[in-house]
Amino acid sequence: MVRHTSKQIPEHLHEWLYAQGSLTKQLTQLAGGQFQVEPLHEHFQRLSFQDAKWMNMPHQHTAWVREVYLYGASEQPWVKAKSIFPILSLQKKARIFQHLGKKPIGWFLFQRATPKCQRRVLHLPDGWTRQSCYTWHNCQFIVQETFLTEFETFLHTR
Predict the structure, then answer these.
(1) At a CB cut-off of 8 Å and minimum separation 6, what does 52 contact?
(2) DSSP code of 126?
(3) Mean per-residue pLDDT for 105-116?
(4) Are 38 and 71 a contacting pair, CB within 8 Å?
(5) Rg (CA), the chain
(6) What is the average pLDDT across 111-135?
(7) What gap in Å lies between CA 129 and CA 63, rounded to an integer?
(8) pLDDT band at residue 1 using 50, 70 and 90 as cut-offs
């Protein structure tokens, strides 16, 4: 399922917002092998009503939230990513995602399986964003990726 906003998606971002597979791999290829993760915040918080509804979980459920910047071939971040892992998923195989540090989620998420994915595309204050609700080894979680201005600038200059 793909949901998107009524605002017109820029043509140069369309393929990125709807791409399947590992964003880590795609950004690394675009950047000629350069890729870096900068952790910003990791904390527990209650699921938002919207996220809980999307994953069919009680809204009072607690989740582990990880926020990072993803860098490619520039000194400024290309993507701001936020991952939301409900506690129930962390008690299963998804527990590996709680201790990633500077490693990207994509290295583990797409390693030996193709997870089921539902996607929404939105325009948020920081930029065009894709939200993916993954089901991976019977674990559900959300990965949100916002493409920042520096990424759009890089696309225009290549």
Answers:
(1) 58, 59, 61
(2) T
(3) 80
(4) yes
(5) 15
(6) 90
(7) 21
(8) very low
Cα-based angle 63, 68, 72 (whole degrees, multiple of 5): 150
Secondary structure E strands in the chain: 2-4, 36-46, 62-71, 79-86, 116-124, 127-136, 139-147
Q: 3-state class of 91 per DSSP?
A: coil
- If one compares 136 and 42, the residue with the highest pLDDT of the two is 42
Q: Which long-range contacts (CB under 8 A, 24 or more apart) does 27-35 make?
A: 27/70, 27/72, 27/78, 27/79, 28/72, 30/72, 30/73, 30/154, 31/72, 31/73, 32/73, 34/71, 34/72, 34/73, 35/70, 35/71, 35/72, 35/104
For position 3, what pLDDT does the model report?
A: 52
Res. 5 pLDDT band, cuts 50 70 90 = low
Domains annotated on the chain, with CATH? 12-157 (3.40.1410.10)
